[in-house]
Design brief:
Strand content: 35-45%
CATH architecture of the largest domain: 6 Propeller
InterPro entries: F-box-assoc_dom_typ1 (IPR006527), F-box-assoc_interact_dom (IPR017451), F-box-like_dom_sf (IPR036047), F-box_dom (IPR001810), SCF_F-box_component (IPR050796)
CATH class of the largest domain: Mainly Beta
Number of domains: 2
Mean pLDDT: 79
Organism: Arabidopsis lyrata subsp. lyrata (Lyre-leaved rock-cress)
Order of helices and strands: HHHHEEEEEEEEEEEEEEEHEEEEE
Radius of gyration: 21 Å
Protein name: F-box domain-containing protein
Oligomer: single chain
Low-confidence stretches: none
CATH topology of the largest domain: Neuraminidase
């Protein structure tokens, strides 16, 4: 397919408004398209203007797989698709074993089973391996972010020696508009937020609920920060959404809905949610849960009109539990030019 005879500026403006998933198909059609899609100017404009079409990914058993969730049937269904391919840069025929994944605007920051760190853009198939320091400690936590909403910047820096001041809970970090938010152990009523512009931590207060026991974060449509809260020794899960994340000093929360996991599971074992997604309009939560050391995905609605359970085989990478998250493909380039 040849490129249309239009002014270059007009072509770039049109493509900047097309979802990355659709643009990916053009890369193999002709060299002109491939060259244009690698243009950093288009990448930056696309990041600002393109619609955010998210996919659902799950990291499980050393792999990352797309999955589709159909809520438009009586019994919601889950379909797992072919795993994404992350090859070792030293041995291109070897698939990398991934233990943890952190998503930031189309990029995945992955730690590997052999204690390496890589930034990966699955949409473009690009990777950037990060050299860790000699004094790196096993099971350290890493996050990816950017300054002033400019993720397409050409320079990369490793932020270390940052004073945390909190005991951060592993595998709870989410990226939202360039900054990262974590659940903390020692401060039950706050989140720890790292600002990549100031390179400092800030406090973000949670909803005013007593006896907070379990808290997990998620991002809704790349527009809102949400938190799933389980009260102590109950099976009820409350979903809260922050509606003005731009002004953290006066951050306010609204309760979206509540589900009771025990109604459908008929289980008296305490359920621990490790990751979740929500469908606000239908008031449905998709949870990756642990019950009595069994791992499963539960889909449950507020009025008990949705329910599906999908059990997992015990993963090889235990104690790392499967994690579900929204992924928005992007044209952000990470290779050095």
């Amino acid at each position: 397919m040849m490129m249309p005879h239009l002014p270059a500026e007009l072509v770039e403006e049109i493509l900047s408004r097309v979802p990355a998933k659709s643009l990916k198909r053009l890369r193999s059609t002709c060299k002109q398209w491939t060259t244009l899609l690698k243009n950093r100017g288009l990448s930056e404009k696309h990041f600002r203007k393109a619609p955010k079409q998210s996919l659902v990914l799950i990291s499980n058993d050393y792999r990352v797989c797309p999955m589709s969730i159909n809520l438009n049937v009586v019994a919601p269904s889950i379909e797992f698709k072919r795993e994404l391919s992350l090859k070792d840069f030293l041995y291109s025929s070897i698939q990398v074993d991934i233990t943890t994944v952190f998503h930031c605007d189309g990029l995945l920051l992955c730690t590997t089973n052999d204690d390496r760190l890589v930034v990966w853009n699955p949409c473009l198939g690009e990777t950037r391996w990060i050299q860790l320091k000699a004094d790196y400690e096993k099971h350290s936590m890493f996050a990816l972010g950017y300054q002033n909403n400019k993720s397409c910047r050409t320079s990369w820096r490793f932020c270390d020696n940052v004073c945390v001041g909190y005991v951060i809970k592993p595998q709870t970090g989410v990226s939202f508009k360039g900054n990262t938010y974590w659940v903390t152990f020692n401060e039950r009523s706050i989140l720890a937020s790292f600002d990549f512009t100031t390179e400092r931590f800030k406090r973000v207060y949670l909803p005013p609920i007593e006896n907070l026991d379990w808290k997990i974060l998620s991002i809704v449509r790349e527009e809102e920060l949400s938190v799933l809260i389980q009260k102590e020794y109950t099976s009820k899960m409350e979903i809260w959404v922050a509606n003005n994340i731009e002004t953290e000093a006066t951050l306010s929360w609204k309760k979206s809905f509540t589900v009771d996991i025990r109604i459908r599971t008929n289980s008296h074992n305490y359920t621990v949610c490790h990751s979740f997604l929500i469908e606000e309009e239908k008031k449905v939560v998709v949870c990756c849960n642990e019950r009595n050391y069994d791992i499963m995905i539960d889909i449950i609605g507020e009025d008990d009109d949705y329910y599906t359970k999908f059990p997992f085989v015990q993963p090889r990478c235990w104690p790392w539990c499967p994690c579900i998250f929204n992924y928005v493909p992007s044209l952000v380039q990470i290779r050095l030019r």
